[in-house]
Amino acid sequence: MRNTRNGWMRGARAVAVVACVTVVAACGGGSIEEQTQANEDQAAEAGGECGDLNMAVNPWVGYEASAYVVGTVAQEELGCTVNYKDLKEDVSWQGFGTGEVDVVIEDWGHPDLEKKFVESKGGDGSATDFGENGNVGIIGWYVPGWLAEEHPDILDYKNLNKYAKDFATSESGGQGQFLGSDPSYVQFDEAIIDNLGLDFKVVFSGGEAATITAFEQAQKNKEWLIGYFWEPQYIHAEIPLEQVKLPPYTDGCQDVPAKVACAYPDTPLKKFVSTDWSESDSTAVGLVKNFKWTNDDQNLVAAYITSDGMSPEDAAAKWVKDNPDKVQAWLG
Amino acid sequence: MTTVVAPPRAEAKEPPPPPAEPRHLPRWAWALIVIGVWIVVWAFTKGQDTLTLGAREHTQLQNDLTEFRNAVLASRDTNPFIQFTYQLGEWFKEAVEWCQRMISIPDFPRPVPQIGWLGVTAVAVWIGLAVAGWRIALLVAASFVSFGLFGYWSDSMDLLIVTFVSVSVAVLIGMPLAVLLGTTSRLGNSIINTILDIFQTMPTFVYLLPIVLFFGIGASAAVVCTLIYALPPLIRIAGHGIRSVPSTTIEATDSAGQTSWQRLRKVQLPMARKTIVVGLNQTIMAALSMATIAAYVDGPGLGQPVLQSLFKNDVGGAFVPGMLIVVMAVMLDRTTTAASEASEKAARGRINMRQRRIVLAVAAVPVLVALWMSRFYTWAAAFPENNLGPSVADAVNSFTEWFVDAFGGATEWFKNVITEALINPMQSLLAESPWYVTATAIMALALVLGGLRALMPTVICLIGIYIFGLWHDAMITLTMTMVGTVLVMVMALVFGVWMARRKSVDLLLRPLLDAGQTIPPFVYLIPMLALFGPTRFTAIVAGVIYAAPVAIKLVADGVAGVSSSTVEASRSTGATTWQEITKVQLPMSKGSIVLAANQGLLFMLSMAVIGGMVGAGALGYDVVLGFSRSEEWGKGAAAGITIVLIGIMLDRIARAAANQDPITHNPTRRPWWRSSMG
Hints:
The complex is a heterodimer of chains A (332) and B (678). By secondary structure, chain A is an alpha/beta fold. Chain A is 44% helix and 19% strand.
């Protein structure tokens, strides 16, 4: 009994000491109330013309760069509350109708989704086409830089069969391996290979991360690799990739999926927004409508995020600060 | 043709039966005969009727599924059921957001949440102290501080909130169902169990899009998909606990004239309390493992930084939040376990309640001080920034780079050996035989290994796989699952025996095994890809990392459970260590080994979808494709259902083969089935 009592006394004393120390330490801080006041004032000033901006962030760095640049401008210049939502494409489009997503800032072409949600394509009208965002998607067949250097003739599809054996892997069953990519991308590689009579087999990497890793390793270890790749993509800033020439794209040459035997067309990337939001009086509507920049702009911000390890917010803020005229043009 | 096929019944490959049992061929010998015949038939028929479906081709049924989903989507503004579920989703969202404003995100106009990190940590530590004692309180303190120290305070709190909300709802829905499961007839029992099996094996990607449709994006979708996955363990295990209350106890209390409600409340639930806590524990673990999946639909939590790092190929950036998920899992696991032990002790009156109350009351004082400070002082509200997280991430990145450079060559060789020697021949046999040959062979194997009990479900599942139109892909996935399981069992036997025989090894490996089981696979996919490229083998390795810990633990526990007097006895007869292991310890822990193989198979299968993301193709790829492109949803759903059918088939065969081993039937020994992924 005595012992426990002593224990208690000691415990109580220790608690008292801790409490005193923390109270003393606490006197150093104390700006939360000031900031709360400041936030309230700022909110009153902004007048809430913009309100919330729900920005879908699809999972690739280039998209992230565009989304955060627009979001940063909306927040800094227009006082919007920007909510970034990490979503895949399909889910983003579903969100237009429910008010959960206002803006998809970079769309690579989803005919099936347009058919469901864009009124002029027969959809329910929850999505609206807001025009091109200035980026141009280039899709093609790429090899790592070292390969193009040592075998320059590999950059023409006609010479690919000569090297087919070198491209063979444990997955390709004796033929050359052609690395396909993420399931969500537009692709006709099997048809192109068949119709050009190439001795290759398409093996799907299953995702962007897998494809990027494969190209990085191939360049680093001088391994043979050919696969589906695209621009704008931040990895082009880190390792050299060369495009293989296919028969040129002509109008209609990709209309019948099984008969495709030509290169991919350049895809102007587009903005899609929620119809309800676009008809609202949010001041951010004009910003998104006017937003336009180049592949180089996007690659620069993407490189800030990946190579320099900046957070998307910081990367966007840096670019916005460095490019006031471009930003002013969007605010029009 | 048939004459050519018939003779090989007397295949030379058939091993001589052991002389000890001359009259009955053992089951494995019969199985080898079946495989021998299969190989001969395959040699003459390979490549015919393999039911291969092109990458973008669909069957009618798959198109119908897509159409069905489109119709539901088109009706979303008028469909009363969707209106109802959407309202439900709104409530979940409000609950989560309210909690977030309390502890994780700034509650405008405040620049910080209502309660800062110091207050939250203090309260959590106090709860730890109250439910489980000071050791757990220390663990909780260390865990919470690490969330802040590594720079993921707010994401960690979000994950805790989502877990808390989902588990609360799971208890609300799950306990009545558990009571139903625990008190219903045997038939009702097996029906509920099959439904739970389906819930647990269906890859989440299949129902993620419909969940968004019904419940909305973000926290609501995160709560619902976590709920679906986390509910079954609770129902299964708690139901088992209620059912296991001895009938003599029930009869004795019944004779006192109680109503069935009284019986449930006063007898069955209290006596099953310990098992119910185990169920709760498994539910929490399952909920945490959904963290990264939920991030695909903007579910708040630590899954988001993991996923964001993945698409930047930033291994270190994914590793840090991934490890914090492990920390949270370990913390919650140990806390719930210790809490149940403490309450057991308290119920037996081994704890001085008065003393405990005083301790808690005294400890509440600094907690209140901390709470108060965390509301008013910046340093106590927002965790002070530091560089620990990024520097650990950098270290992990450079280590990964070094590792890949140093071992790239050796791993390539290993990959090729396994691919050539195991994967390719097996895949050729399973997937390149005509479908009816493969089906017959699988049915024969089921019959040989598990008898009629196994044959019935096998036939049903095979018919299902055929109907959903992805037979060829299903066989490739089955192959990878089997090869992975072989590797898992090799590891389980080696490490399991080692752990059981050396306490120090056990202590060293357990935390690693816990981590392997709870860390999101996305964290280690990129190093795997760098080492092995996008291949089937990469998918298998990823699966092995996830499946091996369970199997190793089961084997270790089984071998350690062999009574020491038996081992002593064998030692006294002069048995060598090798003989001791192979003749005594392994045969006597056969039940655990079979269970380990069963779990290994199912865990491997659950990684099929991850496999689809790293170049393995087959069913996993179909599921990912269905999630990524709306016009392919039907095919993805068909692939998901096929995975479920394969899972149920393998499980039923393995269980029948284990002769209804009591361990395989005890769901408390049956960890949740599937991975964080899928």
